[in-house]
């Protein structure tokens, strides 16, 4: 039994998630497909094994949240907080993502083929995020580590209070947040973008690393400046 | 938390399905709003000489046994105004000839506990405490017909759980608003509106937004202009869905704190807080589905 299908129209989500957590490894299941997700919350959250999960439709909040090792594909859109706090593995959204996509992800790769909403990659802690479309305002807010590749545009206050995460943007940036600045691209940056675009999948091959801008922290907020008077 | 739903059918022959399509949408938002539910449906326009008034008797001593027949009789006797009435339990829609103000004034004097839900040539309004499924069944939402509607499921945060604080809120004629979120300056808005003679019925924050927008429309603003002014004046979290006799509009606050998703086909535009309320609509797999962006106006014509 290598491949198994669950229909959320007839099976409870708790049953599906419990199977993924507790039984799929012992039963030798390598791939689980989930049909009729119909926007349910918390699908395939908290996985901690190298299983492949395919969600055939639109998912609700926190899809594939806290993921470790698993590869989760959502063949539709997702609600708030997809792959939030991901530790490792891969989450692929083939539609668009709502707010807070990849929030505080420590590791792994989140690929969003469409647009992402506001606060994408907020407090990113080491994960990578590749977005085929645009991201909303306040994306990468206080992002500490990890990389974001944005093939479309970015909204207001991109990278506000950024730490050591690096953002690459191909399109227009509506505004940069406090302490975020554009920096010169290095060979390391070009290689990183190239690698992430390949990891994103074939649809990302239309983008070239040299088309992107590098946004990183000016590190002016790292030290308290008594004269700044809250103006940065 | 709260849930909002909206549905507009694009073809006249689909108007008979409006209520049936909407009920699963409303029930889909039960987890977001289990304490009250309501909706406003916009039907074919009455002639300009007639107005209909939606009434709720649940807060009167007689409740569902309210003497509706006596009410129409009273209006004819005391005001000499022709009135017809369709009543079911604690809800009635009364249709009156001429301007509605004398009737409403009389209702408030004679039956102060009778709640006037809405007034207009197109709007019928229902709201009550209970789960969305209970309210939908009690008021036979599945049978409603019309061009568009806005609905709401409430999880109260800003004021008590009572029928009059459930959504939609209305002001003026053929205007209503539902709200997911919370405003931080409703009392400032009230203090601004009250000198203009605008009277408030509850302490609910959404009522401030509703009366603000309706005031702007009455002052001559287009719906788009009024919505633009609301971005400037209203502070807080909101996804608003607004219904008028011929339009359905959606706006979200600049931080998009509260969710919304739209599905559009050749047959309908459907709006909900989350996709789970849209999942069972006909032909949803071929709908254009998108998330409305913050501080942008979405207006659909019925």
UniProtKB/TrEMBL annotation, chain A:
Single GO molecular-function term?
oxidoreductase activity
- Secretion signal, residue range per the UniProt entry: none
Q: What is the top-level taxon of the source organism? A: Bacteria
What is the protein's name according to its record?
Protein glxC
Taxonomically, what lineage is the organism? Bacteria, Pseudomonadati, Pseudomonadota, Acidithiobacillia, Acidithiobacillales
UniProtKB/TrEMBL annotation, chain B:
Would the keyword Mitochondrion be found if you checked this record's keyword annotation?
Answer: no
Pfam families according to UniProt:
GATase_6
Q: Tell me which stretches of the chain form a coiled coil.
A: none
InterPro entries attached to this UniProt entry: GATase_2_dom (IPR017932), Ntn_hydrolases_N (IPR029055)
Source organism, top-level taxon: Bacteria
Q: Name one GO molecular function term.
A: glycosyltransferase activity
Report if keyword Transferase is assigned: yes
Tell me where in this chain the Glutamine amidotransferase type-2 domain is found.
Answer: 2-302
Keyword terms: Glutamine amidotransferase, Glycosyltransferase, Transferase
User: Which protein are we looking at?
Assistant: Amidophosphoribosyltransferase
Q: Which organism is it from?
A: Acidithiobacillus sulfuriphilus
């Amino acid at each position: 039994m290598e491949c198994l299908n669950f229909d959320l129209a007839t099976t409870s989500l708790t049953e599906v998630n419990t199977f993924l957590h507790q039984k799929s490894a012992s039963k030798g299941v390598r791939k689980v497909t989930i049909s009729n997700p119909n926007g349910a919350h918390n699908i395939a959250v908290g996985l901690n094994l190298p299983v492949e999960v395919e969600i055939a439709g639109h998912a609700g909040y926190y899809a594939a949240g806290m993921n470790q090792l698993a590869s989760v594909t959502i063949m539709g859109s997702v609600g708030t907080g997809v792959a939030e706090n991901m530790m490792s593995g891969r989450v692929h959204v083939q539609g668009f993502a709502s707010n807070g996509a990849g929030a505080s992800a420590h590791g792994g790769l989140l690929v969003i083929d469409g647009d992402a909403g506001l606060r994408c990659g907020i407090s990113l802690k080491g994960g990578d995020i590749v977005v085929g479309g645009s991201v909303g305002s306040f994306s990468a807010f206080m992002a500490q580590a990890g990389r974001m590749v944005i093939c479309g545009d970015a909204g207001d206050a991109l990278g506000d209070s950024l730490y050591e995460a690096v953002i690459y943007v191909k399109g227009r940036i509506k505004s940069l947040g406090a302490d975020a600045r554009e920096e010169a691209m290095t060979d390391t940056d070009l290689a990183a973008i190239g690698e992430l675009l390949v990891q994103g999948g074939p649809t990302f091959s239309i983008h070239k690393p040299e088309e992107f801008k590098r946004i990183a922290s000016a590190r002016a907020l790292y030290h308290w400046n008594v004269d700044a008077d809250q103006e940065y | 938390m709260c849930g909002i739903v909206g549905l507009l059918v694009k073809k006249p022959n689909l108007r008979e399905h409006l209520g049936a399509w909407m009920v699963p949408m409303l029930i889909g938002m039960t987890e977001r709003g289990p304490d009250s539910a309501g909706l406003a449906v916009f039907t074919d326009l009455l002639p300009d000489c007639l107005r209909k008034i939606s009434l709720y008797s649940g807060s009167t001593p007689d409740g569902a046994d309210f003497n509706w027949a006596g009410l129409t009789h009273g209006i004819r006797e005391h005001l000499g105004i022709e009135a017809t009435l369709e009543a079911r339990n604690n809800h009635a829609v009364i249709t009156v000839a001429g301007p509605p103000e004398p009737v409403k004034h009389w209702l408030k004097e004679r039956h102060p506990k009778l709640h006037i839900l809405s007034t207009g040539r197109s709007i019928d309004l229902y709201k009550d405490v209970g789960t969305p499924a209970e309210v939908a069944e009690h008021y036979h939402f599945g049978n409603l017909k019309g061009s568009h509607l806005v609905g709401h499921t409430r999880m109260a945060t800003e004021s008590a759980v009572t029928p009059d604080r459930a959504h939609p809120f209305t002001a003026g004629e053929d205007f209503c608003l539902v709200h997911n979120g919370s405003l931080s300056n409703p009392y400032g808005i009230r203090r601004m509106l009250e000198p203009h003679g605008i009277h408030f019925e509850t302490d609910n924050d959404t009522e401030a937004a509703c009366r603000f927008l309706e005031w702007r429309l009455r002052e001559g603003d287009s719906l788009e202009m009024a919505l633009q002014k609301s971005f400037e004046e209203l502070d807080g979290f909101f996804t608003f869905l607004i219904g008028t006799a011929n339009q359905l509009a959606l706006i979200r606050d600049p931080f998009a704190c509260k969710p919304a998703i739209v599905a559009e086909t050749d047959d309908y535009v459907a709006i909900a807080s989350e996709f789970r309320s849209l999942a069972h609509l006909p032909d949803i797999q071929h709908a254009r589905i998108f998330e409305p962006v913050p501080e942008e106006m979405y207006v659909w014509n019925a």
